Amino acid sequence: MESPNLNRRDFFRLAGVAGAGIALSAVNKTAMAALPEIVSSEKADTQAPLYPDTGRPYNPVVTLNGWSLPWRMNNGVKEFHLVAEPVVREIAPGMKAHLWGYNGQSPGPTIEVVEGDRVRMFVTNRLPEKTSIHWHGQRLPNGMDGVSGLTQPAIMPGKTFVYEFVAKRPGTFMYHPHADEMTQMAMGLMGSWVTHFKDTKLMPVDRDFVFLLNAYDIEPGSYKPKTNTMLNFNLWTWNSRAFPGIDPLVVRKNDRVRIRVGNLTMTNHPIHLHGHEFQVTGTDGGWVPPGARWPEVTTDIAVGQMRAIEFVADEPGDWALHCHKSHHTMNAMGHEVPTLLDVNQDDLVKKISNLVPDYMAMGETGMSEMSDMAAMMDMPLPENTLPMMSGTGQYGAIEMGGMFSTLKVREGLARNDYRDPGPYRHPKGTVASEYSGTDKVPEATRPPVNNAPAAVELQVRKPQGHGEHSGH
Ligand SMILES: [Cu+2]
Fold first, then answer.
1. Are 163 and 145 in contact (CB under 8 A)?
2. Do the beta carbons of residue 104 and residue 141 sit within 8 Å?
3. What is the phi/psi pair of residue 33, to 5°?
4. CB neighbours (10 Å) of residue 302?
5. pLDDT in tens, 74-109
6. What does DSSP assign to residue 426?
7. Ligand 1 centre from 46 Cα, in Å?
8. How far apart are CA 282 and CA 264, in angstroms?
9. In a 3-state reduction of DSSP, which class is residue 167?
10. What is the rounded CA–CA span in Å between residue 310 and residue 67?
11. How far is the CA of 208 from the centre of ligand 1 (A)?
């Protein structure tokens, strides 16, 4: 958690730099002068919640490995300025991706408004191709819906479009392009949108987190996602970060916690929380009435959906929060490898070692070797990639990557303290440990031996109507 680290850049200076090759002379200076300034972030850290200093009050969200976009009030209208542009995003320490994002990051900043706010969104296109923005889940005039060709002409490179509507419905939404979206979403163009309740006393929570599920296919040694990949991604990410690059969700014991998750990947993700049960309280269609909620420890978030889950964090500890598709808690290095479990590779190693002296067999006893080798630092990785699983806890390798983080529940944190408190100090005698009792196992109680001849498969035994079943 870092305090806000935003760069306010003068628009003319930025226009002069011409990220997408726009000549300064092409910019209408009078029109540009009316635009809200561009606020940008170059950090992938979770930034402090943005408490509103203008407009209606609300309890802000915390964007996991992200930030919220400041606005300007203009005659009662909340004005934001999003800039679609090429960005460099650190996926996790040791790997950077060349993506497309908004205002310096992918995903773009979270937009936070209040139910009933009139919102004006300026959207500048600094990409090399046309784009648009769709405000996923919002009630708005058809012409503001951002489907290029259908509801508006596309925003050409160098152009700025303006969208204006009233944020009618409280809830959790997303924004993403509806122009060449296969490419543009594979490149990371997306962001979260939260419309807070007008009544700040409605459904209050102590900590309110938001993040998007997204995925990239970036070959080890390269920087750009393969945009034609449909399902076989190798980086399953939350807000374009992969574990161990995903920050923990830090909460105070007995906090009421809300986590809002949107899915802009091309498959579903069963998001699973350890140690607590939660309720799904919201979707992108709105808030679920209390009588319709049910407890879960895993909620499946389908493609294009948002879910808000809520619970009271009453169990101290470091609790895993992860996608339950096990391949989604792995990083790059390729999944198209044969299973080598129980395959003796001794002969193979001898043969290959003649050709490749440093060759090392992997996978004979599972893939844990991967993390052990990575930990020993003697397994060379290609440039700009992450080991399939890494990240260590206080007891050793966690053996996870991808869509994995922890919910850290601690006593006595300050209300706005989101700093990583370090590993949980377990009370004495509450950690699983090696059994140190006797090796002598008592005889198990077994059912009486059945002396009947062994049945042949598919042999049908006809009911006999007496004997031990005569009571029926
Ligand atoms: Cu998943």
1. no
2. no
3. -60, -25
4. 10
5. 999 999 999 999 999 999 999 999 999 999 999 999
6. P
7. 21
8. 17
9. coil
10. 21
11. 22
Q: Are 163 and 123 in contact (CB under 8 A)?
A: yes
Rounded CA-CA distance 260/281 in Å is 10
Q: Is residue 259 a contact partner of residue 237, using CB atoms and an 8 Å limit?
A: no
As a residue count, the chain comes to 472
CA dist 422 and 433 (Å) reads 21
Tokens of 173: 């939404």
Residue 187: is it exposed, middle or buried by C-beta count within 10 angstroms (0-12/13-18/19+)? buried
Q: What distance in angstroms lies between residue 394's CA and the mean position of ligand 1's atoms? A: 25
Q: CA–CA separation, 265 vs 233, rounded Å?
A: 10
Q: How far is ligand 1, taken at its centre, from the CA of residue 92, in Å?
A: 18
Whole-number Å distance, alpha carbon 326 to ligand 1 midpoint, is 8
Whole-number Å distance, alpha carbon 333 to ligand 1 midpoint, is 17
pLDDT given at position 247: 97
- At 382, list the tokens: 């290609």
* DSSP states of 444-463: PP-PPPP-SPPPPTTPPPPP
Distance 134 CA to ligand 1 centre (A): 24
Q: How many CB atoms lie within 10 A of CB 30?
A: 7
Q: How far is the CA of 266 from the centre of ligand 1 (A)?
A: 10
Structure token digits, residue 89: 């995003």
Amino acid identity of residue 188, one-letter, is: G
pLDDT at 4 over 60: no
Quote the ligand 1 centre to 31 CA distance (angstroms): 44
**Is 75:164 a contact under the CB 8 Å cutoff?**
no
Q: How far away, in angstroms, is 271 Cα from ligand 1 center? A: 7
Distance 210 CA to ligand 1 centre (A): 17
Chain segment 161-177, per-residue pLDDT in tens: 999 999 999 999 999 99
- Classify residue 17 by its DSSP letter: H
Is pTM beyond 0.85? Reply is: no
DSSP 215-260: EE---TT--S--TT-SS--SEEEETTB-BTSSPPEEEETT-EEEEE
Residue 211 CA, ligand 1 centroid: distance in Å: 14
Quickly list DSSP for 143-154: GGS--BTTTB--
Cα-flanking dihedrals φ and ψ of residue 94, to 5°?
Answer: 105, -5
Distance CA(166)–CA(329), nearest Å, equals 39
Give the distance (Å) from ligand 1 centre to CA of residue 275: 20
Distance (Å) from CA 189 to ligand 1 centroid: 19
Ligand 1 centre distance from Cα of residue 270 (Å): 6
